[in-house]
Each structure stands twice: as C-alpha cells, then as structure tokens.
Amino acid sequence: MINKILCVDDDSISLTISKLLLKRNGFADEVITAVDGSDAIDYFKELFASSTNPIDDAPTLILLDINMPVMNGWDFLEAYIPEFASKLPNTRVIILSSTIDPEDFSRAKKFPVVAQFVSKPLSVENLAELKENDFVRQFFK
Fold it and tell me: What is the reported pTM?
C-alpha cells in the first residue's frame, strides 16, 4: 500500500471518487486533495516550511489532471520540477486525464517525474494497471 497520495483535480466529484477508490481498494493509506496546480504547489511549499522530514512526509504519488483553471497540470509540472522534484526523489506523478489528444500523451513522456498516463475516471482496472508500473510495483509486493 502507498502511504500518501495527492490528487490534483478541479472536479470535486472526480476527487471524491478517486479518494474513495484509492482507500477502499487498499491502494493508499492517506489521500489528500488539491483543486488545481497552484493549490498543489502551495501544499508542497507548506510541506517544506513545516515538516522536519519532507521526503518522508511527501506524497509518494501525485494523481494530476491536465485541464484545470488557475494552474493546469502542465503548468504545475513546470513549477514543481525545478523547485521540488530533486528534493523529493521518492515522489512520482501519474497523469489522470480524460484527454484523447495524442500531443498530451507525447508531452507527458518528456517529464521524467511522470510515471504513467491513466485515463479518467479512475477505476479498479486503472489501479490494477498502475500496480504493474515499475515505480508503483514496489509498494504492492
């Protein structure tokens, strides 16, 4: 089981479904949420300001929607990577999006912190597929 996951999505229904699914299926012990990329960046700033051990306190996975107002998923990655990625080597991003644009799939591969691209909505099948991911697998032995 993964200790902590951060879900970043502007759709409150998607956040609720993801949170319930992750917890009920024994995928994550704790699920925290952010309503857009800016909210997520603020979460990481606060983590580094208040935690004595941010590496251990950080989420292992970030489930990131792409299409959001204020700060979208791409903008989040552009802000997160230079400021936090090297400080949080045990955190990876899973893009969780309803997009069907091939450009989005290609773009996701350009970010080393992105472990996988998953289609919305999150489902039991998606979770089973994620458990086969090279990074995620270690938490489900």
Answer: 0.95
